[in-house]
Amino acid sequence: MAGPNTPRRNGDGPGTSVITRTKPQTKRPSLYRVLLLNDDYTPMEFVVHVLQRFFNKTTDEANRIMLHVHHHGVGECGVFTYEVAETKVTQVMDFARKHQHPLQCVMEKK
Ligand code: TYC
């Protein structure tokens, strides 16, 4: 029979306990801003179209952001997780190149 001096494995005797984690071990992903940069050559209508097509902006929002970039040199199109931001930048840069516009799109960590 098992007595007080019987060797025990972890978890099956007095003085042994399991501490359960109650905090969910999740981490919020880092976020990245996608920015458009101003230049002297890309037509305003093209920039508005980019904002509508790739960032789902309304005509009003797209015009507001485009004019902000035109006047201040840089403006935010949206905030995304790393891979989504990277995809947006690639899509915009490919689209601008295809139409032979020098429009630049970049991402930065928030
Ligand atoms: N500055 C450009 C022009 O006068 C318009 C423009 C706006 C270009 C925003 C790029 O990200 C940009 N035609």
From TrEMBL:
<keyword id="KW-0378">Hydrolase</keyword>
<dbReference type="GO" id="GO:0030163">
    <property type="term" value="P:protein catabolic process"/>
</dbReference>
<comment type="function">
    <text>Involved in the modulation of the specificity of the ClpAP-mediated ATP-dependent protein degradation.</text>
</comment>
<dbReference type="InterPro" id="IPR022935">
    <property type="entry name" value="ClpS"/>
</dbReference>
<comment type="subunit">
    <text>Binds to the N-terminal domain of the chaperone ClpA.</text>
</comment>
<dbReference type="GO" id="GO:0006508">
    <property type="term" value="P:proteolysis"/>
</dbReference>
<feature type="domain" description="Adaptor protein ClpS core">
    <location>
        <begin position="27"/>
        <end position="105"/>
    </location>
</feature>
<dbReference type="InterPro" id="IPR014719">
    <property type="entry name" value="Ribosomal_bL12_C/ClpS-like"/>
</dbReference>
<protein>
    <recommendedName>
        <fullName>ATP-dependent Clp protease adapter protein ClpS</fullName>
    </recommendedName>
</protein>
<dbReference type="InterPro" id="IPR003769">
    <property type="entry name" value="ClpS_core"/>
</dbReference>
<dbReference type="Pfam" id="PF02617">
    <property type="entry name" value="ClpS"/>
</dbReference>
<keyword id="KW-0645">Protease</keyword>
<comment type="similarity">
    <text>Belongs to the ClpS family.</text>
</comment>
<dbReference type="GO" id="GO:0008233">
    <property type="term" value="F:peptidase activity"/>
</dbReference>
<feature type="region of interest" description="Disordered">
    <location>
        <begin position="1"/>
        <end position="27"/>
    </location>
</feature>
